[in-house]
Amino acid sequence: MKKLPVPAMLVLTLLLAGCENNAASYQIDGNKDHSISFVREQSLVFGPVSQRFVVSRAPVCQRRFTVEDSPVEMAKVSLYEVAPMLYAAQQGKNWYALGTEACQVQTFKAEDRPEAPPGRLVGSFEKQGSELHFVPAP
To answer: Quick one: signal sequence residues (predicted)?
Structure first.
């Protein structure tokens, strides 16, 4: 097996050093089988950060949905409970409807974006240092 030369290993290390692979979850009613997770992944230090919601209500359904990419500096994602099993998430100007009954996510069109929070704030997904956390609302 051929080994990489030291300069090549250093370049690869630098390219991967700024990469991100983070996830945080909101457990609905404290139930690990009923949750909304937010995932951020960056494969190259200079590339965009892919973002996904994972909506789960086991054993009925679990699905992941890719949403708008983000710059490295993440804007927090606020999560609102609109009705039982129906949530809205806001990141900057982007809004998403998340349903846990059938594990669905829908992006709001620009003309349909809420002007005010559509429900009770349950918390937010935030980066604290290099880690992603779900921070419950006070």
So the answer is: 1-23
* Domain extent for 131: 19-136
Q: Tell me whether residue 71 is in a domain.
A: yes
pLDDT in tens, 16-45: 445 778 999 999 999 999 999 999 998 777
Number of domains forming the structure of the chain = 1
The predicted structure's pLDDT at residue 10: 44
Residue 47 in domain: yes
Residues 73-101: tens digit of each pLDDT: 788 999 999 999 999 999 988 999 999 99
Q: Are 125 and 133 in contact (CB under 8 A)?
A: yes
φ and ψ at residue 121, rounded to 5 degrees: -65, 125
**Residue 6: how many CB atoms within 10 A of its CB?**
8
- Using DSSP, state whether 43 is helix, strand or coil: coil
Cis peptide before 5 (omega within 30 of 0): no
